[in-house]
Write a structure and sequence with these properties.
By secondary structure, this protein is mostly beta strands. It contains no helices and eleven strands. Strands 2, 4, 5, 6, 9, 10 and 11 form a seven-stranded mixed β-sheet that branches. A hairpin with a 5-residue loop joins strand 9 and strand 10.
Length: 116
């Protein structure tokens, strides 16, 4: 049983920054891919970015240049650093982990609200 717990969300003004954390109950090396998704009000869930072993992170065009994904294996944690936040970044952000068997695990989500 894998558990993912997101934290770090909150209310910020446009132009501010937040760092989200995704703490896993297993080594992040156990996963083929770890990713961040978000779902804004009235919209479908969107892939924000992901990181895989041996590859550089990939990002959606809407966040590229502003968001950064990184991992800390010692802490079993993946981070999403969000800079220059915009109101359109307002969403619930979810951590996702996938192993080579294509099993997927989700965190409970953390709310990010960006005001004008």
């Amino acid at each position: 049983q894998v558990q993912l717990v997101e934290s770090g969300g909150g209310l910020v003004q446009a132009g501010g920054s937040l760092r989200l954390s995704c703490a896993a109950s297993a080594s992040i090396f156990a996963f083929n891919r770890m990713a961040w998704y978000r779902q804004a009000p009235g919209k479908q869930r969107e892939l924000v970015g992901y990181i895989t072993s041996g590859d550089s992170p990939n990002y959606a065009d809407s966040v590229k240049g502003r968001f950064t994904i990184s991992g800390d294996n010692a802490k079993n944690t993946v981070y999403l650093q969000m800079n220059n936040l915009k109101p359109e970044d307002t969403a619930v952000y979810y951590c996702n982990a996938r192993n080579v068997r294509r099993n997927e695990y989700w965190g409970q989500g953390t709310q990010v609200t960006v005001s004008s």
